[in-house]
Amino acid sequence: MKNARPQESGTSAGTAPFYIDNPRERRLLAVLLQRGETSRHDLDGLIGAENSPDVVMRMRRKFGLDLDMEKRKFVDRDGQQVRIGFYSLSAADHPKAIAALKCRG
């Protein structure tokens, strides 16, 4: 197209910043960027949510982020073997998350 504006250098569809106004969602990205893999239990406390998997689900749907969850064996305080979820942000989405945290609406 003749009149199309040239794309700004350094941005692409995959890294173009998007605005996140929800504090829990912002804290989720910050925690996963800083700590890497984090258990669901720890995420609840760190982001201030009682149901961090719901925050993760919203982030996947709204922003298309690749937030992985891996279940690992764990022995609880009663000696029962259970599986707990650990969340992480894909390496490919790190630039997208950093851009989102820098973006102010």
Produce a short descriptive summary.
The chain has 105 residues and is α+β, with helices and mostly antiparallel strands.
Task: Please render the helix and strand layout as text.
Elements: H1 23-35, E1 38-39, H2 40-47, H3 52-63, E2 67-75, E3 81-89, H4 94-102
Antiparallel strand pairs: 1-3, 2-3
Please describe what this structure looks like.
It is a single chain. β2 and β3 form a beta hairpin. The protein has helices at residues 23-35, 40-47, 52-63, 94-102; strands at residues 38-39, 67-75, 81-89. The protein is built from four helices and three strands; from the N terminus they run αβααββα. The two termini are 30 Å apart. The protein is elongated and about 45 Å long. Helix content is 40%, strand content 19%. The protein has a single domain (23-102), classed as Orthogonal Bundle (Arc Repressor Mutant, subunit A). It is an alpha+beta fold and 105 residues long. Residues 1-13 have low confidence and may be disordered. The longest helix is centred in the first third of the chain and has 13 residues, at 23-35. The protein has a three-stranded antiparallel beta sheet with strand order 1-3-2.
